[in-house]
Amino acid sequence: MSLSRQSAQEMARRRSALFDGGYPYLVAEVDGHVAGYACAGAYKARPAYALAVENTVYVDTGRQRRGVGRALMEQLISACAARGYRQMIAIIGDSSHVASIAFHQRLGFAITGNLKSVGYKQGKWLDTVFLQLPLGPGDTTPPDKIPGG
Ligand SMILES: CC(C)(COP(=O)(O)OP(=O)(O)OC[C@H]1O[C@@H](n2cnc3c(N)ncnc32)[C@H](O)[C@@H]1OP(=O)(O)O)[C@@H](O)C(=O)NCCC(=O)NCCS
What we know:
The chain has three helices and six strands; from the N terminus they run αβββαβαββ. The protein is of the alpha+beta class. The chain has a single domain (5-134), classed as Aminopeptidase. The model has no long low-confidence stretch (mean pLDDT 94). The structure holds coenzyme A (COA).
């Protein structure tokens, strides 16, 4: 995994913000090297959405398809459920990202939305795909506490 200094600083800033918010941030290490990371943060800042988190997961290209992503996500899902969050949302930058979509589906996420052609990059319209996983009791019971509240 190599990053420019600016990217590394931005990653560090985002990571600190997630730590400050009490969200989980996990790093996988294989043979002494960072192989990937997974984190969760607020889906929306408004209080009504405090029980929903958006996840991010990334595995180094040389370490993919060896179970690292699954291990990270299973820990992240457990950590978020333990904190009382009720829904996890994966937002995939384009419907052509079939690997990310298949990966989340293997972990139990269901596709719950597809915004058509909301982005445009390198001469191509981009969809945004939403996948969702209920955490703990999901929406079957009202919340007993608001995480971080
Ligand atoms: C998506 C990503 C996180 C998967 O990580 P990974 O370590 O390669 O995945 P794993 O080896 O743990 O695979 C877990 C499951 O997903 C499935 N899967 C992983 N990559 C897949 C692919 N390219 N196509 C189909 N299924 C795939 C595996 O078959 C596996 O299923 P199983 O455990 O039931 O056998 C990784 O490819 C990645 O970082 N991609 C770039 C960044 C990205 O797209 N992030 C997601 C946006 S939030």
